[in-house]
Fold:
Amino acid sequence: MFDLKDLYQEVIIDHNRSPRNFGKLEDADHTLEGYNPLCGDRLTLYLKIKDDLISGISFDGSGCAISVASASLMTEAMKGKTIEEGTLIFNAFHELVTVDSQDIDFDKLGKLAAIAGVREYPARVKCATLCWHTLHSLLTDDTTSVSTE
Ligand code: ZN
Structure:
């Protein structure tokens, strides 16, 4: 039988082992570090915005499997999107990991739904959302450093 949980675990393991868009973006025009003191995740996000479009996005740093896989999936989802589309994805993702009762819209979220499993482990939610909060701060021009505390 087709088991979603196994599939999603595979997605996270894959993105942790070989993160997409990992490494400094040399021509980034926005850079911000996010830190999750609960787990020790420290990830820096690089962003290049051109004509309201997220034309470049990458990250580096170190963190646990959940934080790295989430950042990897996020950069994949955001690349080439407009800021408005990016904000919609952010909102959908944020609801997904924080609102327990919501049914997960797998069609809308695709692979990002893999991260939804962290809802069952409240301590890990901050790992999953770290890079997202960093991105949100960058997109809303709040460029003080990000901490999940
Ligand atoms: Zn973590």
Observations:
- The mean pLDDT is 87.
- The two ends are 41 Å apart (CA to CA).
